[in-house]
Every structure is written in C-alpha cells, then in structure tokens.
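I am writing to request your help with a piece of structural work I have in hand. Here, with my thanks, is the record as I have it:
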Amino acid sequence: MSRPAPISVEADPASTTHTNRVRALNDAFRRSFVGGHVMLSRGIASLPEEQRREAEATVQAFEAFSVADDPYNEHDFGAFDLAGQRCFWKIDTYDRAMVGHSPDPADPAVTVRVLTILLAQEY
C-alpha cells in the first residue's frame, strides 16, 4: 500500500503528543474492536469462519509495525499472511457524520474509526 512520504517535523512536543494520542487510540481500537467499526472485505468475509476469526485475531495482536508501512507512527496499517494469502488492515478516521476525514484523529469526540481487513489482491 503506497503512502505519501512523512512530513519532516522537528522535535515539536505538540506534534509528538498528537501522534502519541492518535497511536494510542488506534492501538486501543485495533486490540479491542471497541469504539469504531470493523469492516471485512468481500474476500475476507468469504473465507471459512475459522480463517476469518484468525484474521481478526492477527489484527488484534499485530505488533510488527515498520517505518515502511507506518511512516507517521500512528499504527494505522499492517500486513500479514493468512493461509498463503497476503492480507492488509487499515484504520481510517472520519468525522462523526462519516462524510469526511476527522478534523482531529486525536479527539474521539469528533472521530469515528473504521478498521478494514482485506486481502491484498483486493486493494
């Protein structure tokens, strides 16, 4: 999944605090699936139940973050293998009306998180 290069930010405490808050909210949601919506792509949804559950458990336990896949250090994307297939998961943040991006992903009062699990071939 191609992402834009991270913006270079000097050691700005406000930026660091914001990123830490976004990362903590993303991690809490990913680990629990509570506080947002979890979506399964058609490919994941069509897998046998045992594999769907394995995909969900893998996402919840995911800790293999890398600079290549997580350049902003927000823990909003991951990739893993499941039954010989490459899979992705991604957290997107929307405004409360779900019509646009969240004005502040670090503020749960104005943000809805959506985690999508999909087969890489569906991307």
Remarks:
- The first helix runs from residue 13 to 32.
- The two ends are 8 Å apart (CA to CA).
- The chain has three helices and four strands.
- Residues 95 and 102 are 4 Å apart (CA to CA).
